[in-house]
Task: structure prediction
Amino acid sequence: GGARGAAAAAAADVFAYGPFVYVPAYTAWMGAAAGLGARDVADVLRRQFVDATSLSVAVLGPAQAVNFGVVPYGLRSEE
Result:
């Protein structure tokens, strides 16, 4: 619990879920919405993975630090 628990939760969300769940899922959904096939989506993910993950860390890092560190448990955005 406390600050250490909030930091661990935010780090897990940003560094584990971000690159391995959120970025691929977002890329797949956006590719499907654009009419891309699985191979094309995989190519987009390969080309944009580093940039998308870096942006995810830059945006979600501070957001999840607030979410897990300041927002009361019952009001948190749980992904």
Notes: The chain has a mean pLDDT of 89. The chain is about 80% helix and 0% strand. The helical segments are 2-33, 38-69. The two ends are 19 Å apart (CA to CA).
